[in-house]
Amino acid sequence: MSQSSTTIMQNNKTPLRWMSNFGHHLLQSMGHHRALLVVSVLTWVLAQALNNYFGRTTGGGTGYYLTVIFRDILPVLGGGALVVTVLKAVIFEKSGSPLQVLIGKFRSWFLDMSRVTNILVVIAAMILGIGGFSELKPLIHFINPYSWDMAFMELDRALHFGQDPWRLLDPIFGSEFGTRTINFIYNFWFYIIFVFWVMAAWAKPKTSNVDVIKPDWGRQFTLAFMLCWVIGGLFLATLWSSMGPAFYDLVDPTNNPFDAQMAKLLALDANNSLWAINTQNMLRASYLTPGVGGPEGISAMPSIHNATAALFVFAGFRINKFTGWLMTIFSACILIGSVHLAWHYAIDGYAGILIAWAGWWGAGRILRPARP
Q1: Percent of the chain residues topping a pLDDT of 90
Q2: Which residues contact 212 (CB under 8 A, 6 or more apart)?
């Protein structure tokens, strides 16, 4: 056989070898994240079954969140990551041209098949699970009509010296600058979620003997994330069905203790659009007129915004102390914002943090390797 024929045969085998290698690593990644995949798939299946039972079409909520991820979040984070990588190559890695350094980095990243398949599995599982969540959340008031708002409002007052907690925060954050700053941080939460998803999927499991009885933080974070959203954001949210201060008028239009708070927020929105009011208006519209598009499903207790921020803290300290403390500050801002922007009663945030701790602990127990 001639040398040219041998070369052609080897080239023909290269795609098959690549596919075989890819398939091998993909199955490994699926096995590595099997608990996450089980929760995500079951959430999606439950969403289809319950929506079919209630005669609702699915896809609106999932479509909205997928649009946000791929239109708004990915371009910003991808562009930011590229800029940081280029600046790092130019400033700190002066061996060779910046372009060569950049190409070398991308090759090392994207030729690591275990990492590539891991990130595909994790992101697919998270999108599937969040898709199921977004289709189930609008069903909360069908299963259990909103009835807990007055109880949570009164419990808030009992725990905060007889005051609605927003009044305690208003002297500090009530200015236009303070409100808009907190609003920006509160919305930036969506970007931090995706950063942690990618970091969790990209992280290599630790092999140190010191951590032999601990699961790697990435798997623990993603599983805890999904457990919190499903158990807290769906099952407990249905049990404690409530709307939150921004929608209290829909619960009791004649006696709304949050009129003054909403008047301040609406005044800021009239002056220059406030993101919180925009989203609250979309949720109100989808509740009053189902099928209008956009985000759907109103729920206050427990606060999944705060639960997720608390997971950032737990995962952050497993990465390093700096990340842990940075996420602690961020989590405190989310708790303040959830009350100041009328999304939640303070008790919703406290419950969300407790649920995050339970989800983190539970995920650790599920994933913990057997002791040697």
Answers
A1: 41
A2: 369, 371, 372
